[in-house]
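Researcher: I'd like a structural prediction for the single chain below. Treat it as a standalone chain; there are no partners to consider.
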Amino acid sequence: MSEHQKISAMAAGDEISSVYLVAFASLQQSRNGPYWRLELKDASGSLEAKIWSPLSVSLPALSAGQAVHVEGRLSLYRDQLQLTVEALRVLSDEEVASLSLEDYVLSSPRPASDMLEEIERLCDAVLIYKPWKKFMRSVLSDKRIRPLLIKAPAAKSVHHAYAGGLLEHMLSVARLCMLMADHYQELDRQTLLAAALLHDIGKIDEMGGLLVTEYTDEGRLLGHIVQGIVMLEPFLRKSGLEPELVMHFKHLIASHHGEPEFGAAREPATPEAFVLHYADNIDAKLAQCRGVLPPPEEGEGMAWSAYQNLLGRSVCRPARTPEAPGEKPSRQEKKESRQEERQCSLL
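Model: Treating it as a single chain, here is the predicted structure.
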């Protein structure tokens, strides 16, 4: 196949011959016959494309999630780039498997393997009760679950919606919970850690698709909370955990959305359940803020995002407190500080 041409680098007049993902496909009618309206995407952006008659009637059915090799020419239509497709071929499963995922799918800035190793170190440090350690090791080493975890997003679009996003969210929520367990000594930190790491495990089955994330039929009918509890049941039975601990763990999973109107099967009813719910919520909210408010460049002041429907408001990036001369940490110092924080979180 030809070398991948990034959508972000395209310009009017370019000749295109490359592979893209179909994010949207609709067969529509014009005076000259049926035509396909497509949205093509890669990791750098998206592009509208049209397939006119007679080519449109000779193609197989197109749908979101397919990978296609297209040839055509770019032009401007209403000040937006549009691709007129002159040839299109749907890739086979073998061809899709050979694609470089980084060309097509946004990924976490942290390697998934590094995050998984950090999760395993955290478990080894905190889970001193052997049944909990056995349970977590069996889940994280499962031949079906482990490879899915490495590439799974935490959501389709709201937060951490990229490959490795689920691991990033799991680890962030777990670290927040452990910080609160350090402050509130009455919390059962081992049950809390297990639930913090696995509260969204059902998302590996709720959403599917190697290149384009879509909800599965099971995900639409059951949802990741129910799917997660069902998925973990065999591991819990073999763990040796007391029934009361298993019940509490399941309650943490069932209640982590906080309110039934937001998808919770039960409202939080234990201190640990409150901690998990708020840690999950704040991590998701701040991830949404990062998505609409990039970090300010040197000297930038206050800025506002567009209205965010899911948050019910616009989000403000406030002016930052000036740092005293000589006190601003270097990039290396910031990196070393983050490494120290990660090490402290394992204690």
